[in-house]
Amino acid sequence: MSKKETLWSRRNFLKTTGVAGLGTLMAPMAGLASSADKASVVPTRPFGKTGANVSILSLGGMFNIASNQLLMKQAMNWGVTYWDTADCYQRGSEKGIGKFFSRQPDAREKIFLVSKSDARDPNGMTRLLNQSLDRMKTDYIDLYFVHAVSRIGELDSRTKAWAEEAKAAGKIRFFGFSTHRNMEKCLSKAARLGWIDGIMMTYNYRLMHSADMRRAVDACVNAGIGLTAMKTMGGGQVRTNSETELELAGRFLENGVTDAEAKL
Questions:
Q1: E strand or H helix at 121, and its extent?
Q2: pTM above 0.90?
């Protein structure tokens, strides 16, 4: 960990998230902004071999709430500039981002914008990419994913050609995929393709102890692929019925911590 990253200490993290948790309920907007200005800014790290530096925390776009404009404003104040969404994320996610950029056009260059395509065929991907660009009021998307890939065969030579064409047209900067299932194989095989810039995958304490997952992640890192972890809280029940479960989180239950606290 670099010296800059160590400034983002546990104390600063709790202070900032405490501001967010209490501020949305109790503080006036001006007071919330003032508190945020004093908080530490989230550090950045290189995203694979892309040359881009991104915040180590991201703003998930699965929202359709009245306060989404305030949410995005505060994310910028805290340096959370990796914004993730998809064509299928709620009815208002991409449109909410577009509204924000329309009101604050200077903000666009500060954001590493990510969106996703549910389509696999080039024509469908083109249609959804153009729809996302229109919704978000931007000329380009920094990182464009094929969404929810469960086997690497869903990406083929047509996908590669499409990505190269979209890059050449200036509509996307980088390309990759998100994956929720069969992740180890998807990551391992993607590392050998040579044209994947980024991958979003489920990664948490229930998975990181797996030798297959560790090898897959290492392969992607060695290939220069930027990795984004999602569903980091693990989910599911905390158990004590095996040595592995005890090592992961079950030990907390044995020491009197509640199930909900153990998940944290």
A1: none
A2: no
